[in-house]
Known about the structure:
- It contains five helices and three strands, in the order H-H-E-H-H-E-E-H.
- By secondary structure, it is of the alpha+beta class.
Amino acid sequence: MEINTNFVEVLAEFLKKTGEKNRLKILLSIEQGAKSVSEIIAETELSQPLVSFHLKVLREANIIESQREGTFVYYSLVNPDLIEHIMILAEHLDYFELED
């Protein structure tokens, strides 16, 4: 089997962008639909600068998109199925010992 190096690099970068815990919180927060920064902050309990930083990373990676409505900017998933796919990966978590 030949390994496609470009695929591996792109996939590793995607997993790096989505695998960071605060970014995962943000992605889970907007799973059901577009939310403003203040709504994301309330749901994730992250600071405004931290949320803004991670939103920028996710937007630049084309994982989320933004839409301005008046004075508010709403963030949503580019691919609404993303969380479903992440949850499929999460089915393998029983291989790891998780602690609260």
